[in-house]
Design goal:
With about 90 residues, the chain is an all-alpha fold. The radius of gyration is 22 Å and the shape is elongated. It has one domain. Helix 1 packs across helix 3 and helix 2 runs antiparallel to helix 3.
C-alpha cells in the first residue's frame, strides 16, 4: 500500500469510527477548495492539494460503499423469524 492509499484509508477508518460524518468530510473538502480559490493554486503547498485529493477519493469510496450496501439490502430476501411451536403434551 503506497502513501496515498494509506492516507485515504486513514480517512475511511476515521469515518467508520465515527470521528467524522460524511457531511463533515465534504465540508472539509469544500473549505479546502475555497481556500485554494481564495489564495490561488500557485500559492498553495502541493501537500495541501494532495491531502484534498486523498480526502476526495475517500469520500467517493465511502459513498460508493453506501450505495452498494443499499443495493444489497434491497436485493436481500426478507426472512421471517422462526415461530415457536409448543411441544405436544404427553
Amino acid at each position: 500500500m503506497n502513501d496515498a492509499e494509506k492516507r485515504i484509508q486513514t480517512v475511511i477508518n476515521n469515518y467508520r469510527k465515527g470521528a467524522y460524518s460524511l457531511d463533515q468530510l465534504k465540508d472539509l473538502l469544500d473549505e479546502g477548495l475555497q481556500h485554494i480559490d481564495a489564495i490561488g493554486v500557485k500559492n498553495v503547498e502541493i501537500s495541501f492539494i494532495k491531502s484534498l485529493a486523498h480526502l476526495e477519493e475517500a469520500i467517493k469510496r465511502i459513498e460508493n460503499a453506501k450505495m452498494r450496501n443499499t443495493a444489497e439490502m434491497q436485493r436481500a430476501p426478507l426472512t421471517t423469524a422462526p415461530t415457536h411451536q409448543p411441544s405436544p403434551k404427553r
